[in-house]
Amino acid sequence: xxxxxxxxxxxxxxxxxxxxxxxxxxxxxxxxxxxxxxxxxxxxxxxxxxxxxxxxxxxxxxxxxxxxxxxxxxxxxxxxxxxxxxxxxxxxxxxxxxxxxxxxxxxxxxxxxxxxxxxxxxxxxxxxxxxxxxxxxxxxxxxxxxxxxxxxxxxxxxxxxxxxxxxxxxxxxxxxxxxxxxxxxxxxxxx
Length: 191
Description:
Distance between the termini: 31 Å
Mean pLDDT: 96
Strand content: 25-35%
Low-confidence stretches: none
Strand order of the largest sheet: 1-2-3-6-7
CATH architecture: Alpha-Beta Complex
């Protein structure tokens, strides 16, 4: 496994639409090794997710995992999930405000409106079908990562530019209130 460099905002690759893979390509040693690198890089950077495009591979794969991450102690746990060729369908009109940041946009956070319920269709890393409903804060994480595969950054979805702040300002002024809203969502919808 190899740690990869993470593309930073402004790099043209972050605005590309990722190419879908065939099951045969996914099964290749090269792609399976790449997935290992993706996971290792995400964990090393303490991210909740990472898309292939963020490490300079314009293929439709992302990883999501939330464990005992010191950056997000209030986020619900998500076991390691690999999504290949993911497609999201929003379910219902309910939305929530999610204070987001991104490994490709260091030291900046802002409020993004996300769908409370989504349906995700994808393959896992072995080409098995995934078709699940995801709710709450976890749904926000899925939407953020799939956005990357469609050439979109959270900055494109910030609802009000006045919510943009540095990580330190977020921790000092907004984290406690946001963490409480996360707890309320988790209590209500379970994730």
